[in-house]
Amino acid sequence: MLRLSYASRENMTPLIMDPKLTYNNKFGTFRHSDMIGKEYGTKMPSHNGRGFMYLLHPTPELWTHVVPHRTQILYIADISFITTYLDLKPGSIILESGTGSGSFSHSLARTIAPNGHLYTFEYHEERAKAAKQDFERHGLSDLITVECRDVYKEGFGITDLVHAVFLDLPAPWDAIASAKAAFKQKRIGKICCFSPCIEQVQRACASLNEHGFVEIKMFECLIRNQEVHTIPIYTVKDAVSKIKVQQDKKRKRNEEEASNSKAAKSPRIKQDPPNLYVSKTPTEAKGHTSYLTFATFLPVLDDEVEIIDKVNELD
Amino acid sequence: MSLEQSDSPVDSQNFDKIDSHNESFEQDEHTDTLRIMDNQYVFIVLPSGNIKVVKLQKDTTVSLGKFGTFHTNDIIGKPFGHSYEIYDRDKIKVIRNVAFYEVDLDDSGANNQETIDDPSKQKLSYQDIEQLKKDGMEGQDIIKKVIESHSSFDKKTEYSKAKYIKRKESKFSRVFTPVRPTLYSVWEYFFAKNPSKIRDMRIDTLSQMLTLSNARAYAKLLVVDDTQGLLITGVMERLGGYGIVLGIHDGEYHNYDIVRYMNFSKKVNDSLMVLSWQQIFKEECQAPFNYQDESKLSQKDLKFYLRKKANYEKVQEARKILWKGGFDGLLVASQYQPESILDTLVPYLAGSRPIIIYHINREVLVNTCVHMRISGKFLNPQITESWLRQYQHGHIENDMVFVCIFKISKAVMYANFG
């Protein structure tokens, strides 16, 4: 059973519960046997009672925070926007390539459960194995099929099956023909190509257009954090008092030097400025991840219908 | 006591808004085809780019103003994705939808150095065009004629040619595209129409709320939605009919207007429960329902009585579910002060569950964040802002250039309840 331990935002770890094990971190020693049976959200003291941590309910979003980075992963901004744009929900059938570290795969599985399915392809054998293990450990094997495959050479081997395709590949244009065949052919579908470089986007767009995809659009989504602080707000009056205090101090020092004795203490001016709650953007922020290129797959038309090719008419 | 329908007109209106469904429009999202169906909402995208929303009824016609009319029976049953051109006033033919004109690398040597902005270059006058229309010339042919009559069309770069064609198309062609309502297309429509009604919520922010709240099948979620139901719609879709969405709404009756445009199945609609801010408090005693002997009521009275009884029992059930607690998350997009909402609803959340509060004004959330920190009951309160840029395909000589169209930002807050 998976739980997440939370000591601070930067210090979170996934733990699989096992009564024989103990978890150690800089805040102390924590026995699994003490954790089992506790409610999510419990503040758990360490074995000697001096440190503590929180036991968190696992979610794909927390998993994205803690997943071992075997490749560059997808973060919330992209995950959430793609999920909406590809129209994903319980029952959706998706094709993903490559699997990478499985960050997005976990999120997808959560969204399409209980009756959807994710077919995910990974070129690198070790990574494919590691991802498969994660999915099994997290009880997602029914929802996810992992295949180790060179999709550029061999394609996906899937036809007439999926509602949506997500390509996170260096050369998505080489996979688009095979992706096109994977869609349920009689139904509108959506595709997303995830590419860090503009040149990749250009080629992907050209390929999508060539293969008859429409509504080709490109987006970029970023999330900026806001730091919240409480700051005291001083007025000009306070500034004047401050100078007077400094001058007082100087005068006292001079008097003491002159008379060789301690002068009387001047009354301390109490400063009690009001507090203001403020926010600011941190100086360092997460930058560009990738461009998201979306397009729509059009269903194959019934034969009886007459089609007019708009583009050719204009030549 | 008079039992006129007019006794509670808003009541029955709301009942229809969410609960009505017609067997004929029950469509499984995940079938092999997605077809345009009778008695369902559909967006019609016009050549001008404007979008018209229509509840399609068979055996009727839909007017698209100057672009013409069409018979609903001609598109009902067709799959989504294709466009149609109107000819002969109300007949239609299918047109292949093209993304953008794939403009070849420009070998023609054309650039805009020699183009002079001179209206006399277009030889066809407005009257000439009107005459062509009267003579029965169709949209695509008119556009061809307009291009032919432009004396320096050839001198334009390929890119500006495509732009010119697109402009003329939006004026003369009679092509429309039926678009299926999805969370994205529904958001797009309402955001363009009246963004303040949805509290200026952008789709990237809405998406983040849905993902961060872990909205999924079998979840039990509390939602405070003052965006006409946009947020609730997203949550309902992610639950897919499994689990419960409990919406706490402003006013005596909910205003989740947007939900119906999604053409949700009965299963999905049934996952929604609603309570007003007044109804959630135990001390606010509801007038107990006056149960009557149903066998003694007339046909007409019985129908009305049963509806009122169903409404009353729904409210009681929703209250029971709320007070039982253990909800999986709280989502808020409301005019009301978040701290007061938290104080009221957080007791009903299970441990370590996400709380996502949206507000267009950062300052409101800054106060909430401080409140959360002081209370000690919340882990990791964080304020985030989302930026979304859409890029447009463009052309500068031989290089493709992407030009940023717009930048938007939103404020969202995320916290974990410890």
List keywords for this structure.
heterodimer, A: 315 residues, alpha/beta, four-stranded antiparallel sheet, 29% strand, B: 418 residues, Vcp-like ATPase, Chain A, domain 2, Rossmann fold, 3 domains, seven-stranded mixed sheet, 14 strands, disordered N terminus, SAM-dependent_MTases_sf (chain A)
Structure characterization notes:
The complex is a heterodimer of chains A (315) and B (418). Chain A has helices at 32-35, 60-66, 76-85, 103-112, 125-137, 151-154, 176-182, 198-210, 236-259, 310-313, and strands at residues 2-8, 11-16, 22-25, 28-31, 43-45, 52-56, 93-97, 117-122, 144-148, 164-167, 189-195, 214-232, 275-280, 291-297, 307-308. Chain A is an alpha/beta fold and 315 residues long. In chain A, helix 7 (176-182) links the parallel strand 10 and strand 11. Chain A starts with a strand and ends with a helix. Mean pLDDT of chain A is 85; it is low at 308-315. Chain B has 3 domains: 28-97, Vcp-like ATPase, Chain A, domain 2 (Roll), CATH 3.10.330.20; 119-176, no CATH class; 183-410, Vaccinia Virus protein VP39 (Rossmann fold). In chain B, 31% of the residues lie in helices and 24% in strands. Chain B contains 11 helices and 14 strands. Chain B has helices at residues 9-19, 126-134, 139-148, 158-172, 183-193, 203-212, 230-239, 266-270, 299-324, 338-345, 362-375; strands spanning 40-45, 51-56, 61-63, 69-71, 83-87, 91-95, 175-179, 220-225, 244-249, 272-276, 329-333, 353-358, 378-396, 399-417. In chain B, strand 3 and strand 4 form a beta hairpin. Chain B starts with 8 loop residues before the first helix and ends with a strand. The model of chain B is unreliable at 1-26, 99-109 and 394-414 (pLDDT under 50). At the A-B interface, strand 6, helix 3, helix 4, helix 8 and strand 12 of A face strand 6, helix 3, helix 6, helix 7 and helix 11 of B. Strand 15 (307-308) of chain A pairs parallel with strand 6 of chain B, so a sheet runs across the interface. Chain A: Its main location: nucleus. Chain A: Residues 245-282 are annotated as: Disordered. Chain A: Pfam families: GCD14.
